[in-house]
């Protein structure tokens, strides 16, 4: 169990830092309902996303893709991205360097 708190990030969406060091951070994003959104945004960090469970429609720049359990992909720095939950589930995101704004 993580020592970090569960933080609401939107309606039916929460995040929890699982582990961190200055060079890397692992975060679970939990989507509890169909239609829950990860708002479009960008950041200077490289992000990898692994779909632990659920189904999601991701927007990566101009690209749109549907992903499910076992899928993973990398988001380059500063690329606008976001998602919509199609089936409740959990995304495991890694950020390098660490997202200090999540601490």
UniProtKB/TrEMBL annotation:
SUPFAM superfamilies, per database record: RmlC-like cupins
A UniProt-annotated Pfam family: Cupin_2
Superkingdom per UniProt: Bacteria
Residues in Cupin type-2 domain copies: 34-87
InterPro entries: Bacilysin_H2HPP_isomerase, Cupin_2, KdgF, RmlC-like_jellyroll, RmlC_Cupin_sf
PANTHER family named among the record's database cross-references: H2HPP ISOMERASE
Protein name as catalogued: Cupin domain protein
């Amino acid at each position: 169990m993580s020592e970090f708190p569960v933080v609401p990030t939107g309606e039916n969406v929460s995040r929890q830092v699982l582990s961190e060091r200055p060079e890397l951070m692992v975060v679970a994003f939990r989507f509890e309902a169909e239609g829950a959104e990860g708002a479009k945004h960008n950041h200077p960090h490289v992000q990898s996303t692994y779909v632990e469970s659920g189904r999601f429609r991701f927007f990566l720049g101009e690209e749109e893709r549907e992903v499910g359990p076992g899928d993973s992909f990398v988001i380059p720095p500063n690329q606008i991205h976001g998602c919509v939950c199609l089936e409740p589930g959990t995304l495991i995101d890694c950020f390098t360097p660490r997202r200090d704004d999540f601490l």
